[in-house]
Amino acid sequence: MQQESEKPIRLALIGECMIELRGPMFGALQQSWGGDTYNTAIYLRRMLDHHFDVHYITGLGEDQLSHFLLHAWQEEGLNVGDVTLVSGKRPGLYQISVDEDGERSFQYWRNDSAAKYIFDEQSGDVLAAQFQRFEWLYLSGISLAILTPLGRRNLLDALALYAGNGGRIVFDNNYRPLLWPSVDVCQAAYREVLSLAHLALLTADDEQVLWGHNSVEEILAHYDCEEVVIKRGSEPCVIRHQQRLVEVGAQRVENVVDTTAAGDSFAAGYWFGRLTGLSPEESARCGHRLAATVIQHPGAIIPKSFMP
């Protein structure tokens, strides 16, 4: 997938970053920030060199928290030139509790966040023209779910035009039922994106809940993407590329502290590998290695010093 060019290869990830409150309700809470595509963007930016320019497309407000987030993202090396500041809106917020096995439970306050409205004012053709600056676009099911119906329609129209003009799309199926008005609306949106995607990153559990797919064979039969990766937690991931099927085992982790961003970091590691010319198998090992490191630390984003 790597391209030789004098200019940096431009990648853009679309989604939402929220304020994170970690700890027991009404207890001592630690404040941080995260979100599925944001987590992937940060890990990808840390791994890629200067030949790649990583943009994050989202919405923030004009408040102090929003300005703090912008500064923090820039410190990580993200290009924030495509962040929309939405007047009168603020970042979303979530509270996370983690049990003794590292499994999480969440509470969200995001229904009126700034990111919800970022595509409301721009038609599909206007958005597509902006997207043409990027060689790759990355989005998830959550990226679609948080938008207004108008914004989602504008984005889907833009993605079709973008792909039709040679743009390449990566889609992670992150499915959160509570964010969608109905299963039918979600399935229709997923069908549109997956018909355009070059690379599909699919969590097996989400496939089962959304589509009723109970096996790898059922999942693969459902998609025509050039490259499909099925994430199965601690089980080997399954990759179909150019009609070849391979499995790559996950790394064993004895001390799981927090599974937040496990899938997001795997996605970053896998995409990093493919962008830099590694094979699907080598890329999956990159993804597993990063995810295994991330889940041994609290929170979505680990300190840079612990990056593998």
UniProtKB/TrEMBL annotation:
<dbReference type="InterPro" id="IPR052700">
    <property type="entry name" value="Carb_kinase_PfkB-like"/>
</dbReference>
<keyword id="KW-0067">ATP-binding</keyword>
<protein>
    <recommendedName>
        <fullName>2-dehydro-3-deoxygluconokinase</fullName>
        <ecNumber>2.7.1.45</ecNumber>
    </recommendedName>
</protein>
<dbReference type="GO" id="GO:0005524">
    <property type="term" value="F:ATP binding"/>
</dbReference>
<dbReference type="GO" id="GO:0008673">
    <property type="term" value="F:2-dehydro-3-deoxygluconokinase activity"/>
</dbReference>
<feature type="domain" description="Carbohydrate kinase PfkB">
    <location>
        <begin position="11"/>
        <end position="303"/>
    </location>
</feature>
<keyword id="KW-0119">Carbohydrate metabolism</keyword>
<dbReference type="InterPro" id="IPR011611">
    <property type="entry name" value="PfkB_dom"/>
</dbReference>
<keyword id="KW-0547">Nucleotide-binding</keyword>
<keyword id="KW-0808">Transferase</keyword>
<comment type="similarity">
    <text>Belongs to the carbohydrate kinase PfkB family.</text>
</comment>
<keyword id="KW-0418">Kinase</keyword>
<comment type="pathway">
    <text>Carbohydrate acid metabolism; 2-dehydro-3-deoxy-D-gluconate degradation; D-glyceraldehyde 3-phosphate and pyruvate from 2-dehydro-3-deoxy-D-gluconate: step 1/2.</text>
</comment>
<dbReference type="InterPro" id="IPR029056">
    <property type="entry name" value="Ribokinase-like"/>
</dbReference>
<dbReference type="Pfam" id="PF00294">
    <property type="entry name" value="PfkB"/>
</dbReference>
<comment type="function">
    <text>Catalyzes the phosphorylation of 2-keto-3-deoxygluconate (KDG) to produce 2-keto-3-deoxy-6-phosphogluconate (KDPG).</text>
</comment>
